Amino acid sequence: MKTALRATVVGLLMVGFTLGCLLFHQPSGASDVPDLPLKIKKRADKGIYITWYVAKTPSRFNYLIDQAKACGLNTVVIDAKYALSPELLALLKKKQLTKETIVTADPWLSGLAAKLHEKEMILSVRLVVFKDDHLALARPDLAVKIPGGDYYRDLKGGKWADPYAEEVRLYNELIAERAALSGADEVQFDYIRFPAEAASHNAYYPHQKPGVSRVETICGYLDGVKKRLAKYNVSLAVDIFGVAAWQSRKDIESLGQDLKKMANYLDVLSPMLYPSHFHAGYDGFANPGSYPYHFLSSGVGRSRALLSGEATTLVPWIQGFNLRSPNFGPNYISEQIRAAKEQGVDHFLVWNASNNYETTFAALRRRK
Which strand (E) or helix (H) includes residue 225? Predict the structure, then answer.
């Protein structure tokens, strides 16, 4: 079984490499890319998260889309970095990635986007930015390290790319451009921050530049990707820790996420306000996971205050899974939606890593 699996993986990698030769090239000089017809910009509204694996499984995917539509949802957020990155990663590994690298649409994602648009669904493509095992292994010189030269690893063992590195930022810009070319209505960036777990206090950034702060680095990436994607008229969105909505100076400086400054480049901000992810005792609650209304209400209220005067739309992530939530059920979902709405926000995205949304669908059917 393992031998067969290895053979399959090798075969896929060879196909990916061949496609890379066809889909990407380095022009000898400045290249004129034809102007695309301007499409109507759409932002995430009300929806669910779907993994790359489920999106590749038609029976499961179609069921979720049909159920979502029947419940009044109109947005799906789909992981796609794995599908969009192999050819670019091959160029990065050979140190052949440049600002003039031309990318084309991904056939699979283009087909999926067309099907979703036929159903009048909004497609938001989620790209995990700086947490990237594949990049770190392909180019160790671009990875975040710890003293002694080993990789920095977060609490889940994940490796990270150095946000200070220009090649890392360009690589992620080009992946975002592929998503836009493939029909995405919105590109949603997650892990667009510096690592803040485990031995992060000892982390070493090989490409750190004197006098350049983490906030400037993150905003610099957003500025670059906004300029690159401007001609596609897609929305740009960013996921942030729920606690980042409280914007303590320590969090801003360690994560590199200053929401007020980031908002200048964004159409959508999505704080992940999962009650169970706040530590015991937060805001005076022994078990925050038991208080869905409070944490959505407080988090949305704080986020709105931070974005006062900005054009950025607030679309919070809500908790669609049971973790330290003894009262989890349809009412748990409804209370989060009600809290956001009573704070003036009628948009939301539901997260469930296993894509099990039966509880969510039950809650939404009750609300109709």
Answer: helix 214-229
Which amino acid is present at 286? A
SS3 (DSSP) at 327: coil
Q: 120: helix, coil or strand? A: coil
pLDDT in tens, 62-113: 999 999 999 999 999 999 999 999 999 999 999 999 999 999 999 999 999 9
Number of Cβ within a 10 Å radius of residue 197: 12
pTM score, two decimals?
Answer: 0.89
Range list of H helices, 101-213: 107-118, 133-138, 166-181
Which amino acid type is present at position 202? N
Please write the tens of the pLDDT for every residue from 53-62: 999 999 999 9
Indicate the fold that domain 42-367 takes in CATH: TIM Barrel (3.20.20)
Domain boundaries, the chain: 42-367
Are 293 and 333 in contact, with CB atoms under 8 Å apart?
no
Which CA distances in Å does 215 have to 145, 169, 193, 194, 330?
20, 14, 9, 10, 38
